[in-house]
Every structure is written in structure tokens, then in C-alpha cells.
Specification:
alpha/beta, 5 strands, 6 helices, 5-stranded parallel beta sheet
């Protein structure tokens, strides 16, 4: 079974929301396991949007958030704030790169990274240094733990 980390810039257009709903459906039917979801945006409501969609489908998963500095596209916000306010989902999460490092370090199997949006978190993961989760630098951790 595929183990997946999803990195999404949710909140601007509907592709991320639909992809997340589909991925949850695949996970609930046993085709994959979602190990974590990170937002590749500092957009207000992005984390809340992920949580609202997961809650709607009764799916629990760890969520991480991209840290500052923000990207220029983070100013665009088509629906993230509305989802956050309508479903009263929390918009606070731990650091996305730290979450990816933890999931990768703890995984006994290879993990697939799926990115929808800018690769900022992936770049920061690759550039990260060893930490409490793994002594490996990000590039080495990804080479060891990521299959695609």
C-alpha cells in the first residue's frame, strides 16, 4: 500500500480540494495511506480548509503548515477563509517541513511525496539539516525514504 505525504497550496482554486477528497476516498478504500498533509502556502485558512475537508469525510491525519516568508500567491484566497469560518476548523498547525521529516524518519517503508502547487516545502525539506527526528540532512533523508 502506498504511503503518501500530500503537499498542497489549497485555497485558491478547486483542484486541491478535489484532489484531497479523491485521495481520502482512495485511502478509505484501502488503496493508500495518507501519512501527513502539509500546506505549501501561508494563506489564511489553508490549514483549516484541509481540516474541514478531512472532517467532512471523517478522516484523521496530521497536518503541517508552511512557515514564513509567504509567497506572492499567498495573497490570493478564493475559498480558504470561507471554509475556515463556515466549518470552524483550526487554522494552526506545526511546521510542515518538521512534520515531513518526522514522518519520513519514522517510516519503515518508502513514502511517496505528492505536491500540488509550489515546491517551497519540498525545497526546504531537501535543504533541511539533521534534527531530533533524524541525523540525516534533508536530501539524504529523501533519498533513503522517498520512492517517488
Amino acid at each position: 500500500m502506498k504511503r503518501i505525504i500530500l503537499d498542497t497550496d489549497i485555497g485558491v482554486d478547486c483542484d486541491d480540494a478535489v484532489a484531497l477528497a479523491m485521495l481520502i476516498g482512495f485511502a478509505k478504500s484501502g488503496h493508500c495511506s495518507i501519512e501527513a498533509i502539509t500546506t505549501s502556502t501561508t494563506r489564511r485558512g489553508a490549514v483549516a480548509s484541509v481540516r474541514a475537508i478531512c472532517d467532512y469525510y471523517n478522516y484523521s491525519v496530521k497536518v503541517g503548515q508552511m512557515r514564513q516568508p509567504a509567497l506572492a500567491c499567498d495573497r490570493m484566497n478564493s475559498y480558504a477563509v470561507e471554509l475556515m469560518e463556515r466549518y470552524r476548523a483550526s487554522d494552526v498547525a506545526s511546521d510542515g517541513v518538521a512534520l515531513m521529516r518526522r514522518v519520513l524518519a519514522e517510516s519503515e517503508e518508502k513514502v511517496t511525496l505528492v505536491s500540488i502547487g509550489p515546491f517551497t516545502n519540498i525545497r526546504r525539506l531537501l535543504e533541511s539539516e539533521g534534527d531530533e527526528f533524524s541525523p540525516l540532512g534533508g536530501a539524504e533523508l529523501v533519498a533513503e525514504k522517498v520512492d517517488e
